[in-house]
Structure formats: C-alpha cells, structure tokens
Amino acid sequence: MLEATGIAVSFGRHRVLDGVTLSVRPGEVLGLAGPSGCGKSTLARVLALLLRPSAGAVAIDGRAVRGWRHRAPQRTSIGLIFQQPRLAVDPRFTLLDVIAEPLRATRRPVDRAYRLAEELGLTSELHGRRPHEVSDGQLQRACVARALALEPRYLICDEMTTMLDASTQAHLVHRIEAYRERTGAGVLAISHDAELLDRWTGGNVREWDGGGTRKREGGAREQDGGAETRSPSALDRH
Amino acid sequence: MAISQSWRRAWPGRSGRRARRPARRHRLALGTLAVLVLAVVLVPLIVQLDQQLVDLRAAGLPPSPAHPFGTDEVGRDVLIRSIYGLRVSLVVGLVAAVGSVVIGGLVGLAAGAAGGLADRILMRVVDGFNSLPHLLFGVFIVALFAPSATAVIVSVAVTHWTTAARIVRSEVLSLRGRPFVDAAISGGSGRLRVVRRHFLPNLAPQLLLATVLMIPHAIWHETALSFLGLGLPAHLASLGNMINDGQRSLLAGDWWSSLFPGLLIVVPTLAVSALAQYVRDRANPRWRSELML
What we know:
The structure holds two protein chains of two kinds. Chain A is α/β, with parallel strands linked by helices. Chain A has helices spanning 40-47, 85-88, 95-105, 111-119, 124-127, 136-148, 166-183, 194-201; strands spanning 2-11, 14-24, 29-33, 55-60, 63-64, 78-81, 154-158, 186-191, 205-209, 212-215. In chain A, a hairpin with a 2-residue loop joins strand 9 and strand 10. The longest helix of chain A has 18 residues, at 166-183. The radius of gyration of chain A is 17 Å and the shape is globular. Chain B has a domain at 88-288: Orthogonal Bundle (MetI-like fold), CATH 1.10.3720.10. Chain B is 76% helix and 0% strand. Chain B contains eleven helices and no strands. The radius of gyration of chain B is 23 Å and the shape is elongated. The termini of chain B are close together.
C-alpha cells in the first residue's frame, strides 16, 4: 500500500499541505478531486518521492521512505504522469528516447520502449520526432509509456488528461486501466474534473477538503477500495 | 513538405526573407574567420619570420606592394608580423577561453547541482574573485611567472571563470526545477546521469556561447598584458606587442604599424560575435527542425 500520513508542505511561510493523509491499495484506482491550486500536484510530488515534506511520513508496501529524490531507491516503484507533457520531456529527446530513458537509467533492455510506443498508439514515424514536432496528445502518450516502462507498483496521474481531446483521454485511461488489471498496480488519479474521476474510479473519489481529503458523497458508484476491475468502456462516453 | 512549402508561400516574411538575410552575414563572418585561420596556418609554412631580425634601411616604410601593411620602426614587415601575432593571439585566446569556461562550468555545475551549503560556499568564492579588479589580478598572476604564453593563458583563465560559473549555476537551478528532470529522477536516473543527459546538453549552447565570446576578450587581455610589457616576450610578434611598439611610431605619423594589428583584433572579434549568434540559434532544436506543426 502507498500510504501518506500527516503530510505537511510549506514553501516559505506559505503552507500548501497541512496534515494530509491518503492511502492507495494495490489494484485500487482512487480519484482525488479538488480545485486548481489546492496542492494536489504538490501531494503527487511527495507521493512520487520527488519532494520531501516538512512533516509527515510516506510508506510503500509497509516500508517507510527515508530518502527523497535521488536518495530514494523506491522511487521507481511509483510512476508519475505530469499534467503538462511539454514541460515533462526534455526538448532535445526524441519520443523514443523519452520512453527509453527509465529503461536506460536502470540498465534494462530498451526493446520494451518499442512495444510500449506501439501499445500507446505511437507509430514508427513518430519515434524519431522531438517534442515540438508532435501534438500534446502524442506527447502525453509518450509520457504515459515512460511512466509504465519500469512497471511501477503505483501510478500517480496528475491531471493527466487535462487539455487533451476526448478520444485521447479515453485511450490513455483505457491503457492505464489495462495496465492496472494486468499488474495489480494501484492508481491515484488526480483531477479537478470530478465527473471524469467519477467515471474512471467508479465513485472511489476523495475530495479535497481544506487541509485534507474526505470521501466524496454521492459518487456514481461506491467502491470499498478493493481491487475492483472496471470496464474501460465506461469512459468511452466522455 | 507540401504543408511546409505552402506555409512558406503564405508567410514569406517569416520563413523566407528573414531566414536568408542573417545567413549571408554569418557566411561573411565564417569566410573572414576561415581566411584568417588559413593565413595563420599557411603563412608561417611559406614565410619564416626571424623574430630578432632588424633592417634599419627599410624602417618606417608606408604600405606598398612590397610591404602591404608597411614596416615598423626597425624595418620589420607589419603584415607578416601581424599574421604571426594573430596566430599567437588566437591560440592564447582559444586555450584561455576554453580553460576559463571549463573551470567556471565545473564550479557552476557543482554549485547548482549540489545546492545547499556547497552552493553557498562556492558562490561566496565566486563573489570573492569578482571583488578583485580582474586586470590587476591578471597582472599579479603573470608577474609570478616569466613572460610566456602559458602565463597569459593561466592569468586569463583564472580571472575569467566566474562569469561562466554564474551562467551555468543559474541555468542548472532553472533546469533542476523542470518537470522533465523530476521525470528523469522518478525514472531511476542518478545525479550523474541527470547531469550528463539533461544538464550538460541543455547547457551546451550557453557554454559554447560563453567560450566563443570569451575568445576575443582573452585576446584583448593578451594584447593588454603585452602592451603593458607583462605578457609575451617583447621581441615576439604578438598583436599587443605590435600595438605597443607602434604607439611610438604614431607620433612620427606612421599610422600603419598600429592600425593593421588593431584591425586584426577588431575584425575577428566582430566575426566571432556574428558566429556566436548563429551557434546559439542553431543549438535550439526548434531551429534545426524543418517540420512546423
């Protein structure tokens, strides 16, 4: 289980997170809804071990996290998909380089990058293109492929589908759901779009409430947090 | 390609005329530098210069077909000595510029990538160096050695690395906060890999630009130190020594012995500046691509 307990983050005098507690079980897809600027992305960075909180603790599958960023060996257990793909890729990399980067960094065979590109619908003529030569949707597909490259135990999708067209949204969610079903990974879907989260998670949405989160009331379907398998086709309507 | 061509037809001012006009300027700059580099490489192979030779019968001759740049007060050909001088100045300028950017780049990279206490200590060292008047400090360093090209190179490199350090540090700090660096760390990249795969390639245009712009500056320092009699040995043909020697002839109306060595400082400086702009533009991946979406 990916557990965050009493997380507080401050930037100077400004306290962004204050005692947030959240947990994601393996196989679960949990939605986190909240307005823009409330600190969802900051929490995502803490959960991805990229930002050390000023207070609180993070544990992955029962093991407490002690180091952050480069000093966190468990960081590859958590995949993070960013809101803005243009900022999330090195402008000098080709799409294939973007996907292969985690494989190269961890000295794994890079053949998997081709398979991931194909799964995400990136045709071979897109492989050699740089970020400014492709659309936002194509770039986000590469970012999703990169996040899945190391088969993380938990996946954090931070406003992953914002600014994308409906068909790309549906395709990306479909791929992540397929990955979750195949590997039993836990997924935390963060968005300000409560409707999308409702459909994706079957109502398993926590709503941002001041400094913390609470269970969303009146969701489409209540889910007890287990490893429920959902049909991605439910999202195709979006 | 069809889209690209029709786009160009529709907006000729954006992709056609504007793209071609700077290219001519850059070609001129490259051609000038190529001619100068060829001259400093080939002329010494054809004409051997005796640095000590004095011919008082030919002293102070104005420019003529036999001596296109004239002769100096002791009868030495200004053209041949200028080319030999430019060779020395270019080598000193290039090595000193690369040296200063390498030192500054390493310090800036270490400060920016490590952050925290290491950053604060390194930046205070940079402030310390910046608080010293750099020409005076350079004079102090060359005074520690016998006059030689090595002394000038060390002097320029040691007094000029701080600019590169500041540029590199600020760029690294900006890069550190970018989501793609977070993504690399999240994907298992260690510190060195992030530096090698993300920081250095993204810093390359700035480093290249800093080096290219430092070359003429280093040449000015070489000439300034030689002009003060502290740089290269006085008999050795260098642009600084020649201008220094030429100032005495100026009072007698012999303008050529200072003007031509001076032009050989100004012209390569302008050409290098034009090329630096071109290098910076080419380093941007957007400019490299012909595909516009």
